[in-house]
Write a structure and sequence with these properties.
Layout lengths: L6 E7 L2 E7 L3 H21 L5 H34 L1
Antiparallel strand pairs: 1-2
Helix pairs in contact: 1-2
Length: 86
């Protein structure tokens, strides 16, 4: 199997610098980092007493929750499309 070229990019998330290595474009990695940073700052704004670890965990929980909701919605739309085609 051929290996995909890996890129290394440095991003800032919630005041911390991270180096991310992967095969996605730099633009994609920056977009992900920006969305995570924005979500963490939003959660912290609503809960100013939370420490960084709790903000990070709540960000992860909220992100996975959103992902699962979108996945279920996608499956419903795929079922509807299948009904329309069939």
């Amino acid at each position: 199997m051929g290996e995909e070229k890996k890129t290394r990019i440095t991003v800032d998330i919630y005041g911390q610098t991270y180096t991310i290595v992967g095969t996605d474009s730099s633009a994609h990695v920056r977009q992900v980092a920006t969305l995570v940073d924005d979500r963490m700052r939003e959660i912290r704004g609503m809960n100013p007493y939370l420490d960084t670890t709790k903000v990070a965990v709540l960000t992860a929980v909220n992100s996975v929750h959103d992902y699962l909701k979108l996945q279920a919605e996608k499956e419903l739309l795929e079922q509807e499309l299948k009904k329309l085609k069939g």
